[in-house]
Amino acid sequence: MKGRIHSFDTFGTVDGPGIRFVLFMQGCALQCQYCHNPDSWNAQGGKVVEIEEIMKEIEPYLPYYRRSGGGLTVTGGEPTLQAPFVARLFAECHSRWGLHTALDTSGFCEPEHAETLLGQTDLALLDIKQTDSRKHQALTGQPNERILRFARHLGRIGKPMWLRHVLVPGVTDAYSDLHAWGAFAESLGCVDKIELLPYHRMGLYKWRQLGWPYPLENVTPPTEQEMERARTIVELGREAQRKVAAGLAGEG
């Protein structure tokens, strides 16, 4: 089976537990204004590879992944666009090596399309950029209903999840949005970790290489004070959702 990849990293430390082989797939339906891999959007770009080629790249580093409690993370682009390929790759890693698998996704995918893939996924890393669909479309070019539906599906099937949110000053840091994000995260029920990630400009040079104007040219990364404010608001949203859930349980 063949897939189209953008690149890979043999020593990832932020995309799941432990040290990880991180495979970046090619192609994405979203066009996030802060994307640091805009060259991964084109589904016909990148490099075509066989499953076995990726397995050979992973194998030399297995001792590091195993000792650290790490494994394989497939990200993008958007990996669910190539769900059959990623599902087969995960299955091979499980059967040959018992290697932990993580799917780093935007969730812009109908659950039934990813059913086999999710069956081979040990951990989902889900990036929910906005709970407000209008703002989500302005930021990414797409509405968010499909993403929220995918997140709820992960909750229903009890898939272990890390939820992520990129804090972009003036774009994703409104009180109402962060509070709603926290409440939604809490409602899913199987979130092992919440990560608020500061916006960065490390992909700016790629936009310039492509000759594209960078939409957030005048936006600077958040300060630690701004990050702490966001964490507080998200936690308030989670607490509000817990109170709602407890009230509904009491009524029942």
From TrEMBL:
Stored InterPro entries: Aldolase_TIM (IPR013785), Organic_radical-activating (IPR034457), Organic_radical_activase (IPR012839), PFL1_activating (IPR012838), Radical_activat_CS (IPR001989), rSAM (IPR007197), rSAM_sf (IPR058240)
Radical SAM core domain location: 14-238
EC number from the UniProt entry: 1.97.1.4
Subcellular location: Cytoplasm
Keyword Signal assigned: no
Example of a GO MF term: [formate-C-acetyltransferase]-activating enzyme activity
Lineage: superkingdom: Bacteria
Principal subcellular localisation of the protein: cytoplasm
Claim: Membrane is one of the keywords in the record: no
Any one Gene Ontology cellular component term annotated for this protein: cytoplasm
Signal peptide: none
Cofactors required: [4Fe-4S] cluster
Record's catalysed reaction(s): glycyl-[formate C-acetyltransferase] + reduced [flavodoxin] + S-adenosyl-L-methionine = glycin-2-yl radical-[formate C-acetyltransferase] + semiquinone [flavodoxin] + 5'-deoxyadenosine + L-methionine + H(+)
UniProt-listed CDD domains: Radical_SAM
Keywords: 4Fe-4S, Cytoplasm, Iron, Iron-sulfur, Lyase, Metal-binding, Oxidoreductase, Pyruvate, S-adenosyl-L-methionine
Cofactor info, note text: Binds 1 [4Fe-4S] cluster. The cluster is coordinated with 3 cysteines and an exchangeable S-adenosyl-L-methionine.
Role played: Activation of pyruvate formate-lyase under anaerobic conditions by generation of an organic free radical, using S-adenosylmethionine and reduced flavodoxin as cosubstrates to produce 5'-deoxy-adenosine.
NCBIfam families linked: PFLA
Family as reported in the entry's similarity comment: Belongs to the organic radical-activating enzymes family.
Protein name, entry field: Pyruvate formate-lyase-activating enzyme
Species this chain originates from: Paenibacillus athensensis
Lineage: Bacteria, Bacillati, Bacillota, Bacilli, Bacillales
